[in-house]
Amino acid sequence: MFAPRLYFRARPTTTAVLRRCLGSTADAQTLDARLKADLKAAMKAKDKVRLPVIKGILSDILYAEKNPAGGASFSRGSDADVAAIFQRAIRRRNDSIESFVGGGREDLAETERAKLAILQDYLPTQLTVEQIEERANQVIQQLGVTGSKAMGAVMRDIGINPTEAPKAKIAEVVKRLLTSSAAARIGRHAQRTGSLGGLSADGQSVACFGFKNATNSQRAAGYRFKSTVTPAAKDTSIPLNSKTQYTTEASADGKTLVTAFPNGLRITSEANPGHFAAVGVYVDAGSRYEDGSTSGYAHLMDRLAFRNSERFTSAEAMAAIEKLGGSIMSSSSRECIMYQAAVFPQDVPTAVKLLADTTLRPKFLPEDVGELQATVPWELQDVESKADMFLPEKLHEAAFRSGTLGNPLLCPIGQLHRATVDSLAEYHERWYRPERIVVAAIGVDHQQLINLCIDNGFADLAPSHPAPAADQSDSNGSWFRKILATGGANSRIAVPSCKSVYTGGTWFDSKPDVDFTQVYLGFKSAGIDNEHGLYVYAVLQMLLGGGGSFSAGGPGKGMYSRLYTRVLNQHAWIESCVAFHHCYTDAGLFGISASCRPRNEHALFDVIATEIEAVAATSGKRSSFRRPYASQEGASLFEVKRAKNQLKSNLLMNLESRMVQLEDLGRQIQVSGRKVPAEAMIQHIEAITPEDIRKGAAELLASPATVLAQGCVDGISQFCPQVAANHGIKL
Length: 731
Prior knowledge:
Strand content: 5-15%
Number of helices: 26
Oligomer: single chain
Largest sheet: 7 strands, mixed
Strand order of the largest sheet: 3-4-5-9-6-8-7
């Protein structure tokens, strides 16, 4: 009897990969052959500096061989192809050195310099820009050509070995020389014809001042006529006509500066010192403002961020982001579409340039829309498979059935396939207006931020409606306060049908095969416009706390919160139980979510309903459903004090993050026009009393409840009305 033979395909080990890299070669003069020989020598010598550098280059070569860029062929036997790999690696090392030096990490910069020297040793001495210019000028004169159309001919005849200089660098020099020669020719022509010609800074766009036929007053004013000269190349400059009239005010503590432009744009910053700077753009748009024709478009705008724009292609934007080496992201929510970047201080201009292009000047191309239509369904399927992400969305839909905050956060499938280039452009035109935009920064000089915003076209956006005139004679700055107080020249409250209407409701999804039944019980709570209520429910959330059935404990884990001591520690069949609070401008959703093993869902609903009712009871008095382990049910002074301490701790720890500081600043200015400092928040929290908690919980019970369940829902759907009535909960 023979044992069966098992066949399997193992993942290649490091040794196997090296063997593939060290494949046989007959030509010992090529860069590839030299690398392989040096790799063997470095392995024998156990050279810890040279060995990883060589391995990295060989890995890059192997990847390029298997995945040639743009469909072009790659040969490891070609020194030109391998040299391009080296040049990219050298460029990365130089970028790393620059970043480390800027961040004060000279030790890491020195390590990178040692690795850079190893890479440079494989290439011949690199040509300088002056040497490339000399050769290029010779070819241009020989061919007698000008303009960017001659790029191909000059590049073919320049005769520079790719190992001596990167091809991109050669192309950049040749393009500059060709466009400058074209500019000189235009200038000579203008002198002969009596008109003055000129080029933009990049030598691409031409503007002619026709002095020959202009009046004296037009000559004196520099009257501009439309150019009759065809630009040599695509113009990537931004035409700016900004009237740089703006007013800046500081907060009471002097830490926060806010600048308002006549078009409604607001720029805010805090000069907090640090190794990193953070900058973001916040657009007052989101799913709550959408209707049937634009449902899910905020989600699509998020997914189209940092792609094609006026100054960047998708590939160029990605390359610029990778070079920054920081963190850059976008996200969409119900009330805001935000774009944020955390970078080294010296990279702030590049970050602002990227943010400006993706927010103000995106290009919606058919191929990008097609890619979204292919990938978003997978994202929706992934979200639906995760109860902790999917059920909060269904909770909002059930709680706000009339739309606004109940609109879907993610783009529905049906709407996705109806999205077009034109409809996305119309959405962008409607919502990305200056009065709805806030530019915020942390760790950036305020005047530098203003100048960067002006240079990148933020101040030149036309508002939806004429903004208040910036009259310099108005010393009181009333137009500034009007913009700041209303959240822009066209504030949120001016948008039709945007006020949220809470309805409450139920939603049950039967899935008998899942491991756990999920139950949500929610109520209408305070929004940001109710400042006192906002802090009350924040403390109440900490007081209820909760979490999973397993926790490592420790400070801040909520092990002494009510949902731990009164629920998880008492009912072994409950898997998780946690309080939640979703807060928006004019409304909020407060409640408890929990999960349990199947067939216990009706009892689970009773348990969490009891906790909501209990916290609304007067301190020392029991709710209608008494339990022997609860000595009292209304919130005690000790419980409230502990919840306030935990809330203050969480708040201050979160504000240590640069990105949290940035989002907090941008969103506060966007929503209320002012920044509430952490010290003021602490004072608000300290002022909360047990009676405030009781009243806040009682107000929850005054509104209809929102009940969701997924899993084995037969029990809860049958007994939900009766259990709710027993606890004074309206359905």
